[in-house]
Amino acid sequence: MIWHLVAAVFAGLAAAGIGLLLRTLSRKRLPKWIVPVFGGLGMLGYQVSTEYSWFEHKQEQLPSSAEVVASETSSAVWRPWTFAFPITTKFTVIDRDSVHVSESPTRVVEFMLYQFERHHIDAVTAQGYLLDCASRELVPMDTVGGELDTQAIRILRKDSGIYTALCAS
Fold first, then answer.
1. How many CB atoms are closer than 10 A to CB 144?
2. Most confidently modeled of 7-21, 105-119, 123-137?
3. Alpha helices of 92-148 — where are they, by DSSP H?
4. Mean predicted confidence (pLDDT) in 36-49
């Protein structure tokens, strides 16, 4: 987090330097306020670039066994450009190395699901699940004892990324 602040300050200084250079080249015909405006635009540009590249950056850091099955975008009033171009702030990953398939009467898949969220500090949530491919029932597992949480069963849609990644074969 501190490195993003340092990078934003240096992006602002570099952009302000460009504004100062333009003012000097124009023989002071450009107004004085052009320098801080360029500095602010440089910092804003850095922040926007960082936010839009977060998803691709995190995907590059994932191991080859990870498969992204869903992503969520968001918009915010304080970022008006996100209404035209939403930012990816959350995505879900299945770890292929953790997938265990049982073909007893119906196909049942046990797997780990990781959810990455962008906040001031990135958050990662890991949860084990059991998926019955015939009924599309997804049941979370207790991370400590491995017991099923039958109160939280949910039915997946057929076009769900999790269902297609694990059961469509």
1. 6
2. 7-21
3. none
4. 95
Report the alpha-carbon distance of residue 160 to residue 56 in Å, rounded.
22
User: Could you tell me which of 127, 126, 123 has the C-alpha nearest to residue 140?
Assistant: 127
The separation between CA 154 and the C-alpha centre of its own chain, rounded to angstroms, equals 24
Task: Tell me the C-alpha to C-alpha distance, in Å, between residue 165 and each of 81, 99, 103, 106, 110.
Answer: 33, 11, 17, 17, 13
Residue 138: C-alpha distances to residues 34, 98, 99, 152 (Å) = 57, 16, 14, 8
What pLDDT score was predicted for residue 169?
Answer: 62
The two three-digit tokens of residue 54, written as one number: 């977060």
Task: Choose among 45, 35, 37: nearest CA to 11.
Answer: 45
What DSSP state is assigned to residue 79? B
Q: Give the position of tokens 């992006």.
A: 11
CA distance linking residue 103 with residue 80, whole number of Å: 50
Q: In whole angstroms, what is the distance from residue 166 CA to residue 110 CA?
A: 10
- Nearest CA-CA partner of 159 in 136, 140, 138, 126: 136
On whether the pTM is more than 0.85, the answer is: no
Q: Specify whether the CB–CB gap between 56 and 49 falls below 8 A.
A: no
The number of angstroms, rounded, from the C-alpha of 26 to the middle of its chain's C-alpha atoms is 43
